[in-house]
Each structure stands twice: as C-alpha cells, then as structure tokens.
Amino acid sequence: MANPAASRLEQTLRDEVREELRRVVEFDALADEHDEVRQVVRRLVDAANHRAASVGESPLPDPEGLANRLVDEILGLGPLQPLLDDAGIEEIIVNGPHRTFVIERGQKRLTDVVFEDDADLLRVVRRAVGRLGRRLDETSPLVDARLPDGSRLNAIIPPLTTRYTHVTVRKFLLRARSLADLVALDTLPEEAAAFLEAAVEAGLNILISGGTGSGKTTCLNALGASIAGTEERVVTIEETGELHLEGTLPDCVALQARLPNVEGAGAFPIRSLVKNALRMRPTRIIVGEVRGAEALDMLAAMNSGHEGSMCTIHANGPRQALSKLRMYAMMAEEALPAEAVTEMIAEAIDLVVHLRLDPAGARRVVTNVYEVTGLEGDTVAGSDLFGLSEGALRWTGIRPRFAARLHGGAFPWDRLDRAPTPVGASLDGNRRGLER
Description:
The protein has 436 residues and is α/β, with parallel strands linked by helices.
C-alpha cells in the first residue's frame, strides 16, 4: 500500500468484509455467490468512503482497485488473480512472497506482485485449493490441483522446500482451433497443414511430441478439428480439460481424470478412462498426454480398429518420443517384453509430429513430420517426410508408404513439388531406428 494509514484502512475493510460474508453467505457457497460477494464488498467500501468524508478525512485513493483486491482475495488468488485474468500470460511462477514471474509470449519476466510474507502467500494458496477439496500442510506439503478456469496449480511448501512456499500456475491458452489457424500463426506451412489434414481424414494414428510449452495440446486440438463426418465417434481423455473438440465435432465425448480426495481415495487415472473409452463404441480415441502405463492401452486401441487415434507425449524429437512411448508401455503391470511392445509401436503409430518453442521469437513451430515405416530387425524404423531446412518446414521429397490412403490415392503431390526446395534427404539417409 502507499502509506501505513491506507494499509490499516484496507485491513479494517478486509475484516469487515469477512465478518459480513460470514453473516450473509455460507462459507462453502462463496465460490457460487460471486454477485453477492461483490455487492457486499462494494457496499462496505462505499460506507468506508462516507465515514471518511463525515469526519473530514481524505477519501479512499482508489476505491475501485481496493474493491477488486478484496474480491480477488475472497474469490480468487489474491494478488495473483489479475495475472490469472490476463489473457496474454501463459504461466505464473511464485518463488516465495517477494518474487513472482510470469511467462508472456514465451518470455519470462519479473512482476511487481508481492505478498506480505510467506504466511500470506500460503493462506492464499490454501484458500484456493481448499475450495477444491485439497489440502496443503505439513502432512501434505505438495498439491497439484485444477482451478475452476482449467488452469493447473502446483504448490510445494517446507519441509519439501528449504524456506518458502513455491507456486506454479500453468494456464492453457488455445490460440489455434484449426490447422488453418496454425498456418496463420506460422507454426507450419500450408502444404504441411494440407498433408496432415489428409492424414487425419485417412485415419492415420498420430503421436504429437514436444517439450513443455511447445504447443502440443494446441496442435492436437487443431488436428482433432479436422475429423469430419457424423459416423465418427470421438472420445477425448485428459487430466485437465483443455481440448475443445466436444463443442466442435458432431459426436464427441470428453472425459477427464480425477485426482484422489483428501483421504487419498476416489482417483480415476487416465488408464482407467482409456479402458472405459473402449466400451463407449468410439471410432477414435484422443488422449491429451501419455505419461504412464496408459500408453499400453493406447497402443492396444490403435491396433484394434480405432484408426485415427492421437495422443501427445513429452520428448525432444520423434525418435525419443517413440522410445518414451515404449518405456511407458513397459511400465504397465502386464510387464510385456520389450520385443512385443516395440512391435506394437511399429504397427500402431503412423506419424510423429514434433514441435518446439523457438526461444528467439517465442514461436511454436513444427520441426518434423516423421513416418514410422515398420520394424527393421529389433528396431522401429522411420523417416522424416517434412523437416526443418533454413528455418522453414519443407517436404523431404519422400512419399510415405501410406500414400494410397490419402484422398484415396489422389493427394496432390504436385502441390508439395511446387513448395520451396525439398531438404533433399533420402529415405535411406534419413531413416532412424528405435533401439532395442
């Protein structure tokens, strides 16, 4: 605050608001009574202004800002709420009470948001996760929760940290709803978008890989939006509901995993939902992110008639994506041998689309469209169909083995021939394997 008197007045108002809300609204219903909370705050702020005027004191310097801060503290994340409401901010990183960073347009910067002390920061986080049925204390010093707007909040406190409370809020900003939007964002060129659209229509199984913040979920949403026809029944499965396909596709069911409650019970992990999705008569299954044993169920679905299924995975390249997919599948309790899992991958995955975040321009770009060509000995072989050359994604000149499936064999390859000069890689020179 600007001065001690203003700080004392704000604290007095804060206490008055809490007392009034205890009287007129049930605490458990606060999150559902936004309008009433705002009315109470506005009435008490106006009353404070009138009291100041009646005794000849200066009015509140910023009554609107004070009212907003009080509402944010009660209903939101306190000083962090304006950052959460800012559509341009992708991530909020809080390292203790006095250092709050944001990632905006791919760049990290320090903000002027501070808390009084670590206890103040901890109160804000506890209030937010408490409404979600979660707890954060010495017996449960780590929490991972989904906020009402879909953002993911992770908080960790001592004794798991050496001194302060640390909070990370990851927002999901859907900047592209279609492949055309990705082209407009310069994530990939038109000819690559046309190729991927044809691949989705042909029912190819696609694995989307990339690092954190590279745009995997946005790419998955854009590819999923290319699914056409009322005969398609799509089931999407996510930990946090970020895909927007349920409102786009004619027959789409969106499933969302559930974390355990305070007692550690009631969890429904991704793997359970994948298994249940198979009983819902889907033509395609889309998993927001594969990061565990559900990889085995996803591969089984792709190999059992659910052509055109898709998922994302954290990886630094197409070959590492295939390697991690195998590792996750082998984590399943079925304990399949490596040879069997490798064969499943070779038979299930048709394409790997890899993205990365360009740190210079903060732009998400597709760097590889990689075809899985099958098994060669004990390895999964593949080759780049599109690759980066001189900063642009270009066709390598290789026609995929599934070429006959694209537009019934009528895909306009001459369109790719007219695109910028191919990178010139040959099938043999560019082929790589997933080591046993």
